[in-house]
Amino acid sequence: MRAAVLYEKNEIKAEEIEEAVCHADEVRVKVMAAGICGSDIHKMQTRWKYPLPAVMGHEFSGVITEVGRDVTNVVVGDRVAGIPLLPCGKCEYCQSGEFSLCDNYRMIGSHFYGAFAENTVLKAKNVIKIHDLDFEEAAMLEPLAVSMHGVLGIRPKVGDTVLVFGVGTIGILTVQCLNLTGVKEIIAVDISDKKLEDARKFGCTHTINPQKEDLKARVLELTNGLGVDIAMECAGSKVTQEQCLLVTKKKGKIGYQGIAYADVLLHEEAFENIFRRELTLKGFWNSYSAPFPGKEWHNSIEFVKQGKIKLKPLISHRYAVQDTAEAFKMILSRSEDYNKVLILPQKEVL
């Protein structure tokens, strides 16, 4: 099969590789669409910590083409999305249903070959039926479930004012999940005017570009001098990770979803706000709860089917699998504005 294979020094080659064997408890999925995740980009910017050669891709959808003899939850022809986490099932956290916190988890696309390929093999428990959902939308269920996990965990109340730092894919998905909870206002913060323009289309009531206006002063102006009830950090920037502490009201809540790409060193005011304002800080990792994969995934599918969450408008680029290296080059060089970038393994070479 054709796959995008990662080698040393971040070299990606499109080549023919041998298909994996489908064992008794596994299924083979013909991959129709796979998304490039922010964590994939992060791994390429730092150091790949997993076995090489590798095939990345953990956000994906496709069709079941083969099932192992012990598989009962799906049949050949079922349309599915991949669930990339393989929890150990034995540690304290798995035993309590906190699968995102598993001590010994493994991931498709890191520990095992993933979905930047014409097909992939995975445990049958790691697929979820999507019925008639569009394949490109279904490939975005994983990041949507991540956003859903954060919103469910921060527990917004009807009438809250929420600020979202970073309105890329995860940020806009978080905004859409927040809109379902009855919050009163959503303030979007980003340094891209284009992303802020898009944020308004998705329901943000106010937007702030902190390179053009004073962030703290503008937030206080919008909140009668109090600050926001909740700040959600989706940018993964050490700047915004600190700014959350400056714009949240007393007894407010902060949800951290963005990956830390560098050390976060806090100024005195930001740190003191944690205890002087009695802030609640919560981190959110992955997208899982009990029963596996959890309500985050099932909610996501239903809200997309009902049209309450829109995914297609977030897709900015589509590449054939043989052009995966070009996709990463575009992202890492920031040569173009992008949002969600998809790899389409069944796309024909022109």
UniProtKB/TrEMBL annotation:
<dbReference type="Pfam" id="PF00107">
    <property type="entry name" value="ADH_zinc_N"/>
</dbReference>
<keyword id="KW-0560">Oxidoreductase</keyword>
<dbReference type="Pfam" id="PF08240">
    <property type="entry name" value="ADH_N"/>
</dbReference>
<dbReference type="InterPro" id="IPR036291">
    <property type="entry name" value="NAD(P)-bd_dom_sf"/>
</dbReference>
<dbReference type="InterPro" id="IPR013149">
    <property type="entry name" value="ADH-like_C"/>
</dbReference>
<dbReference type="InterPro" id="IPR002328">
    <property type="entry name" value="ADH_Zn_CS"/>
</dbReference>
<keyword id="KW-0479">Metal-binding</keyword>
<dbReference type="InterPro" id="IPR011032">
    <property type="entry name" value="GroES-like_sf"/>
</dbReference>
<protein>
    <submittedName>
        <fullName>Sorbitol dehydrogenase</fullName>
        <ecNumber>1.1.1.14</ecNumber>
    </submittedName>
</protein>
<keyword id="KW-0862">Zinc</keyword>
<dbReference type="GO" id="GO:0003939">
    <property type="term" value="F:L-iditol 2-dehydrogenase (NAD+) activity"/>
</dbReference>
<feature type="domain" description="Enoyl reductase (ER)">
    <location>
        <begin position="9"/>
        <end position="343"/>
    </location>
</feature>
<dbReference type="InterPro" id="IPR050129">
    <property type="entry name" value="Zn_alcohol_dh"/>
</dbReference>
<comment type="similarity">
    <text>Belongs to the zinc-containing alcohol dehydrogenase family.</text>
</comment>
<dbReference type="GO" id="GO:0008270">
    <property type="term" value="F:zinc ion binding"/>
</dbReference>
<dbReference type="InterPro" id="IPR020843">
    <property type="entry name" value="ER"/>
</dbReference>
<dbReference type="InterPro" id="IPR013154">
    <property type="entry name" value="ADH-like_N"/>
</dbReference>
